[in-house]
Give the backbone structure.
Amino acid sequence: MNSRLLLASLVVACSSFTALAKLPPPPPAPPPDPIAVAAKAEKDKAVAEKAKAVQVAAEERAVKNFQANLKKAGKPIPKPTPIVVATAPLVPAAAVKPGAVPVTATRAAKAPEAPPKK
């Protein structure tokens, strides 16, 4: 019984793959209209600015609500913690050879492997 099901599923799978192989490729997409692309970019920019303003307003409301709740409970309001963004170490231009791959901090800071024990 199981061998019949296996054989039937194999036949169905092979026939579907051959049917897909015979389909013609899709027609190429027409080139985009530059005016429409520019209009869409302007519209997307305006929508992004509006969404960012809504997000900032929601964050401000949440912070004020949090601080008001802490005040009601008689707890001290914590001071905001500054967030420091890590940057890649600067490599002097004289140290980089043309065509060479620069050494990143992760490769440079990797500890050497210990020799194998005998």
Observations:
- The mean pLDDT is 81.
- The radius of gyration is 31 Å.
- The longest helix spans residues 34-73.
